[in-house]
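Entry type: protein chain
Record version: 2
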Amino acid sequence: MRALKNIFSQLHTFVLWLLASALFWGWIFTFVTDTSPEKKITVYCDVPQMRDTDLAVALEEDMPEGLRMIKVHSFGYVMFDVESIDKGDIFIIPVSDMEDCAEFLAPVEGEQGIKVYDAASGEGAAESYIQYADEDYYLFLGSGSAHIEDGKALAVARQLLALE
């Protein structure tokens, strides 16, 4: 009985160590499974729902040479780390958010953006991976992308546009 009483009196300490351990190992996992921006393409989608892992796997099937991975995230992923969105390579955003996002968007092949979803017809690129809302969506390259000059961001964007 005395041992149980001692354990329960120290329970808050055990819980704090458990939380600290989880945060530490989560950081280690992220550090080991991620790579530098020069070796990956990051795609951000401002959509209601998507199959991000499946889309990343589909895009990695024909990945440009020199890349190690393609990451696909929703805008919610960077909610608490807004500065990391500046380093995004490809963005899929609705018309209603284009003005708010203009600071980190770059034109694609001289055009403001490429339409990836037409709300009137209900047709768009990568529809088996991305659930679009009821408005037009456009694809942009990131103005802070490490892959605008080498063309890798554009190659992955074209690959994304070819997905059904």
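Comment: The mean pLDDT is 90.
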